[in-house]
Design goal:
This protein is of the alpha/beta class. The protein has 21 helices and 12 strands.
Length: about 450
Amino acid sequence: MFIGRDAELKDLEDLYSKPGLRSIAVYGRRRVGKTSLLAEFCEGKRAIFFSAREGNETINLKAYSKALSEVGGIAWGSFDDYEDAMRATVEVCRGQKTVLVIDELPFITKESGYFASTLQHYMDHEFSRMDFMVIVCGSSIGMMDDILNGRQRPLFGRFSRQMELKPFDYLDSRKFMPDADEKRCAETFGITGGVPLYLRLMSEGTFKEALIDNFLKPSSFLREEPLNILRQEFANPSIYSSILSAMSDGKTRVSHISDASGVEMSTCSKYISSMELLGIVRREAPMSNSKKRPVYEIADGLFRFKYSVIDKVQMLIARRKEEEAYESVMRLMPNFMGERFETICRQFLSKSTRYGLIGKWWGNDPEMRTEAEIDIVAADGVDLTANVLFGSCKYRSRPMDVRDLEELIRVSALVKGYRNRDYALFSLSGFDEDLVEVAKERDVKLYTLGDLYRRR
């Protein structure tokens, strides 16, 4: 069953409804659902759906011939090259509205470097005179960016639209497990990062069964997936893995990551930037007037889970101690979910409030003589006269109390400026009675996990 992507399908349909040549490039990380989206879009349309393989030109030309034959009703046999294949495409599609999907474009260009210039020629000439829609798609974000946006590349400027398919947010992720309780939904989203295939796998059976099957056996698919992505994207995956291990141990500045991973600083910075482009890593700067420098952290849910949790139980997995590994993972879960819960809270505010800028703050705390942090700072403008919301997020087994609110208010006083200040507390386990009363008096917003999953 196809789930979600209503906005993306509408964009594709709107483009399809226009006359002449239309072109769009769809890209996004592996397993995010690009092929499923395009298959759903092509349902009921006259479409050539060509899924390239990671093989030589002969294999892919045979696959293209088969895809073309299914539309034209003519057995084309094999093509000599892609010039021959494009010429046949014109013959099959001239006079009839058709969609051409080229899935996994980087696989073709890697083996057949001339393909991009051949496609560019046909888009500029023959295809431009037809009622024709060209869609190219790829999982290697770095290669797709180079193929489409490199100024010296043949396809530069040839695609009128580029659609980045992102993972689902926490609310859309729940559609994969509509009957599950909010805690399982939150933890499944935290682990999978909203990637459709991972959501499907982690929604099967109980949470314990899904965790063991997908992570805690030597042959588990999701345990190996982050390394497979690194192998696909980078020539030196072990170096990238070392950098991610250092980040999972709490190293957030390039110099500290470099020291912990043993990767020379300038090289480390370049590798971090490459992972930032793919969404594996993010650079975060403190909101407002903090003088603290930006930090780097693992942004992708699956990568974060692998390096901060699963790697810590590797010996138990290797010894096939599934029950012990599961118990260890569940002890690590609250700490892992701390950051992931903040992500859910940010997404909630983005969907439900007027605040357009949402981040966090950290800076010097003169009173405590240490560094203080505020989980969420959300503002409705860029200058310090804007309205602001300060938030604290606790993913723990005990309810939040008045001390949590008082600490948030105390630390938020370190942040200067802003016209109106509001406060919000987000809690897995709710709030004690005293805090509920104080919150009413001070107009402080209190949100439980259940509140976050109720659409506003």
